[in-house]
Amino acid sequence: MTQTATSSVLSGTAARARDLTKTYGRGSTEVHALRGVDLDLPAGRFTAIMGPSGSGKSTLMHCLAGLDTPTGGEITVGGQHLQTLSDTALTRFRRDHIGFVFQAFNLLPMLTARQNIWLPLDLARSRADDATRRRFDDVVDVLGIRERLDHRPSELSGGQQQRVAIARALVTTPDIVFADEPTGNLDSESSREVLDFLRRSCREFGQTVVMVTHEIDAASYADDVLVLADGRIRARLERPTPEALVDALRGGRA
Ligand SMILES: Nc1ncnc2c1ncn2[C@@H]1O[C@H](COP(=O)(O)OP(=O)(O)OP(=O)(O)O)[C@@H](O)[C@H]1O
């Protein structure tokens, strides 16, 4: 399998946040969703973000992905400071450097699996050069969807649809892939498959993946787990046991 050496892999850090704050509303309706988050997401690793409802997981992911603007602090993705980009430049940056996998798959129903996977390349008007075709083939083979490429999403199982969505996120060799509850709509067997593919995409492509999840089983596939509480990082755990995760989620570890 081809090991893709992106600039981010060489530099060691795919995304970085410094003193990140996000406040919604004003005065009596003010909500401090993020209260000074510092983090470095190492390139080529699978990181899970966990924490109670309302702890700031989605806000953190949306800020890191350039989908939401922080109130304060700094975010760097693939060496680029996001705050220095205009709206148009940020849109282009997201398209070229960031991949997304959502709970609801978000595939276009009229397009085949193949067309859905090619879509970001078509949007970027990338030439279908040899490297791109090789990447497409590698991603399709790792995800085991070659037999399903000419089917539309409605003709695929939930797990297969999510594998197509992951292939679409990986095909542009993004600096980082953000997955928001990617197994939320899947049965347990499809969930295991999807999590295994996310993990393999880190190992086999040197891809960086960040996943928000509520599920301890899902987080156990990750290399690193960040636990958020009340807008702050409460714990960072490397390949935690389920018991250590439960403990950290209960607030047992600082
Ligand atoms: N657009 C918004 N306007 C006002 N408050 C918001 C907005 N988005 C999020 N919040 C608040 O910010 C805090 C953090 O929300 P966030 O969605 O990031 O948490 P979460 O950990 O992802 O929660 P969940 O697990 O329930 O999805 C919550 O108190 C939430 O109510």
UniProtKB/TrEMBL annotation:
What InterPro entries does the record point to?
AAA+_ATPase (IPR003593), ABC_transporter-like_ATP-bd (IPR003439), ABC_transporter-like_CS (IPR017871), ABC_transpr_LolD-like (IPR015854), MacB-like_ATP-bd (IPR017911), P-loop_NTPase (IPR027417)
GO molecular function, a single term: ATP hydrolysis activity
Pfam families registered for this protein in UniProt: ABC_tran
Tell me yes or no: is Nucleotidyltransferase among this UniProt entry's keywords: no
GO cellular component terms listed in the entry, alphabetical order:
membrane protein complex; plasma membrane
ABC transporter domain location is 15-249
Indicate the transmembrane segments per the record. Answer: none
Which N-terminal stretch is annotated as signal sequence?
Answer: none
Task: Keyword check for rRNA-binding, yes or no.
Answer: no
SMART domains recorded for this chain? AAA
Keyword list, A-Z: ATP-binding, Nucleotide-binding, Transport
The UniProt entry, under PANTHER family, shows: ABC TRANSPORTER RELATED, IMPORT ATP-BINDING PROTEIN
Q: What is this protein called?
A: ABC transporter ATP-binding protein
